[in-house]
Amino acid sequence: MKEKIETKRQANNTLFGEHFEQVAWVVPDIEKSAKFFQETMGFPRFLKMENLQSRDLEGTYKGQPSDFKFHLYLSISGGTMLELIQPVSGKSMYTDFLADHKNGGIQHIAYSVQVKAFENAVNQLKSKGYSVSQSLVLPVARVAYFDTYKEIGVATEIIGLTEAGNQLIEQLTTGNY
What we know:
Blueprint: E1 20-26, H1 30-39, E2 47-53, E3 60-61, E4 64-65, E5 69-77, E6 80-89, H2 93-100, E7 105-114, H3 118-127, E8 132-137, E9 141-146, H4 149-152, E10 155-161, H5 163-174
Parallel strand pairs: 1-6, 7-10
Antiparallel strand pairs: 1-7, 2-5, 3-4, 3-8, 5-6, 8-9, 9-10
């Protein structure tokens, strides 16, 4: 007879800990990667946003205003968002990642909160000793990335969803885009 193992849920000590949202790959060829996820892994189509400019999105990199360009593709499967990012130009944490991982790979995971709770969530990570390494303000969300590579092997992103962001997730979930 197998012994039943119980796991007790601990009290959540962060605002965002129960809101896992996304796994993100930074890749050298976004079309090739999207094709793999669709044809090999059975993902639905991707919402494609190309040539996003950080300077148009209040972007920062290492605490300074930034000027990088990137492609971003999104899809949802099993309730988790898959994000593909391909840097196009300029210096960013995405180009840093590809410099160390030529074939690309999982670069960050993300937790989401509503935009009104974004600053509080960011401050919770800051109070634990982590600083923002990159940030953007998109129409669908405010985002902040933290360097958690030493602890978990990837960066951690906090996403502050706007109303447009909530609608986008609904569209991705239903495939209505």
